[in-house]
Amino acid sequence: MGNSRLTVREIARLAGVSVATVSRVSNGTGQVSEEMRRRVLEAIEKHGYRPDHLGRALAAGRHGALGLVFPGLSGPYFTELIQGFESEAVPSRASVHILCTHLRSDSDAQALEMARRVDGLAVIGGTISEPTLLRLAEMVPVVVVAGEGPGAVPSVRAENAASMAELTRHLLLDHQLTDLVFVGNPEGSPDVSERWAGFLAAHRAAGVTPPASPVAVSMQQADGVLAAEQLLRPDSRPAGVVCANDETALGVLVGALGRGLRVPQDVVITGFDDAPIAALVNPALTTIRQPVRELAAEAARLILTAVNEPERVPCGDIVLPTELVLRRSCGCPANPVTGGTGT
């Protein structure tokens, strides 16, 4: 049976070569004669030696770790982001460290401390101040996810404004709903700011006066329930509620059904993200599908490229496409297989 605890020095002794030769063979770098390579590979195969990736990283002046800076970990959105990030980091043998900034007064300081322990950072837009992002980028490779990076800091984000305008236009023109409200806080997230802008643009294009301001709530389901208490009163109920994400929309849906309202007959409700549960609730939720896992996977790829091949690191934005998914919550017939028709 092989012994994974063998050290590189022991493999070198067994193969009758230098430690440097074993390192070159196991890493696939440098010039090694065929005879030396054969002896090293035979010793590795016979004794089951596995190079210590952390040891290699430390020898190269690295930590063998990547960092994620999130506002928090609740809900399916952040779960998808983590899974997408790990899908690239783990095969590269990099561990993933997570910092949650929600309700922390020392978020910037903690992010700077994390940068001393990782080889690169992915930061959700709006969680760290721009001056701190620029300082972080001087320390390690940094990619902003779901927002634009300051200066030359690259970013990966989904398209927000045009898709939200398409959804809003669908409600205004196809369903003739001219009394719409927007639920979400544009000040709290770059994504929500762009979605609010798309909502307003669709109203202007249709010649319909939009609401003066959004219903500014956070992005969790409980916040949607609270928004429903405010919005769904018998004397002032809007025709449609356009939510900045699916979690909020599901909270509004819970609030509506709890008041005995029919969706979409009494009020239309839409979301954004296309979380897995959006197609499973009744009625299924009209929403905008964004590639959440791919956002994080692309960010991890950019960071790993920056760590391993600095000369190949791209600058600027990578914007991934989104897709309108029409379901019953806006009055459209659902696809019996997928729960949505798409566009």
From TrEMBL:
Domain HTH lacI-type: 6-60
UniProt protein name: LacI family transcriptional regulator
Keyword Repeat: no
Protein's organism: Micromonospora kangleipakensis
Keyword field: DNA-binding, Transcription, Transcription regulation
GO molecular function, one term: transcription cis-regulatory region binding
Classification of source organism: Bacteria, Bacillati, Actinomycetota, Actinomycetes, Micromonosporales
One Pfam family from the record: LacI
Origin superkingdom: Bacteria
Signal peptide positions on this chain: none
Family annotation (CDD domains): HTH_LacI, PBP1_LacI_sugar_binding-like
UniProt entry tagged with the keyword Aminoacyl-tRNA synthetase: no
InterPro entries noted in UniProt: HTH_LacI (IPR000843), LacI/GalR-like_sensor (IPR046335), Lambda_DNA-bd_dom_sf (IPR010982), Peripla_BP_I (IPR028082)
